[in-house]
Every structure is written in structure tokens, then in C-alpha cells.
Amino acid sequence: KTLDLRFRIRKPLPLDAPIVIVSIDDASFEYLNRRWPWPRTYFAQAIDYLSEFGARVIGLDVMLGDRDYDEKNDLILADSITSAGNVVLPMKFGTRQTGAFTVDYVDVPMPLYRDEMAASGYINLLLDPDGYSRRVLLTDSSMGPARYPFFLELLSAYHDEEIIIGESGELQVGPTRVPYMEGNRLII
Predict the structure, then answer these.
(1) Handedness of CA 33, 35, 40, 46 (dihedral sign)
(2) 19 with 55: CB under 8 angstroms?
(3) Which of 34, 70, 151, 181 could form a disulfide with 169 if both were Cys (CB 3.0 to 4.6 A apart)?
């Protein structure tokens, strides 16, 4: 909580990167007078607009593991993802209790989207005892090949470089130095 307080006292720092965050919030639901889930055509239209305005990377933080109620909407969204060529989608993994069994799971975008997306990164969070998330795993290979968090996949796609985590724990995207690990801390 003291870290949160220090950030509030410091105030936000000015951004020097052309980043736009399009948020789905209560005002969005009121304006559109729709409940969740929205038709996939809404996301397709957002991707089309962002592409038209020159977005280098589009991170669509919406789980797309199940079909839309109208199969045509899935095809329209897949077409927008293909046309953009720079869409990063989320995934998540972990374990869940199913009756008497504990089952490992991976929620990934359905194949229609996986074939067209630029990348996919996990959105799993590490929660501190107070319920806030202030840390993230830089890589996880507990369920097969190494996976990277959503934000790193976005960064990698933005720079058009492969993610490299060196022996020292320093995190790099291609030749550009970015946040790195020192012990068990992410240094920004």
C-alpha cells in the first residue's frame, strides 16, 4: 500500500510513446445499451478503426476461446484480425478443481483466431496478500513450452523483435533494453 501511495503522490509521468488504451467500462455498456458478451463484430470494428488509423500493434484483451452466438461474427472478427496482421490476444492457464479432481487447463483463443493473430500472451496475475497485483511472471513453462505475459508479447510485436530473457535475468526485446529482473524484482 505504501508503494501505491508513493505512485499517487508522484502523479503520472508523461508518456513519450504513442499508446492508446480503448477501455470497455460501465459507460460503454450504457452508451451501447448492451450487456456482455458483445457480438464479435464490435471488436472487429474496433480493430478495423485502429488499423485504419495506423496502430502498430493491437492488444485485444478479450478471451476468445468460445464461439460467438452467431458463427458469422467469428468469421468477421477473424477477417479483421487477418487484415490488421498485428493483433495480440490473451490466454490464461492454471489449475481448477473439477469435482474430486484437480485439472490443469489452458484457455487459448479458438483455432480460427490462433491462425490469424500475431501472438498470444498470458494474463495470469500474481496477487499480493492484500489482493492487489504488483508482480508478474516474466515467463512460465509449467504447462509445456515457455509462455510470456500479454504485455511482453505486445512489446515484442511493437518492436518486431523476439523476446529474450538472458541468464542475468535482464529482459530484452531484440537489441533494445527494457525493464529487467534483479533478483526477484522487475526493475522498470
Answers:
(1) positive
(2) no
(3) 181
| Degrees to nearest 5, angle at CA 151 with 50 and 19 | 40
pLDDT score recorded for residue 188 = 43
**pTM for this one?**
0.77
Q: Whose CA is closest to 155, among 181, 127, 179, 184?
A: 179
State the cell numbers at 136: 508478474
> Do the beta carbons of residue 170 and residue 183 sit within 8 Å?
no
Q: Give the per-residue pLDDT at 75.
A: 96
DSSP string, the chain: -HHHHHHHHH-PPPP-S--------HHHHHHHT-PSSPPHHHHHHHHHHHHHTT-S-EE--S---S--SSHHHHHHHHHHHHHH--EEEEEEEEEEEETTEEEEEEE---HHHHTT-SEEEE---BPPTTS---B--S-B-TTSS-B-BHHHHHHHHHHT--EEE-TT--EEETTEE--EEETTEEE-
pLDDT in tens, 102-124: 777 778 889 999 889 998 988 88
CA nearest to 107, candidates 120, 126, 125, 88 = 120
Residue of 181 and 20 predicted with greater confidence: 20
- Give bridge partners of residue 186 from the DSSP assignment: 181
Beta-carbon neighbour count of residue 127 at 10 Å?
A: 10
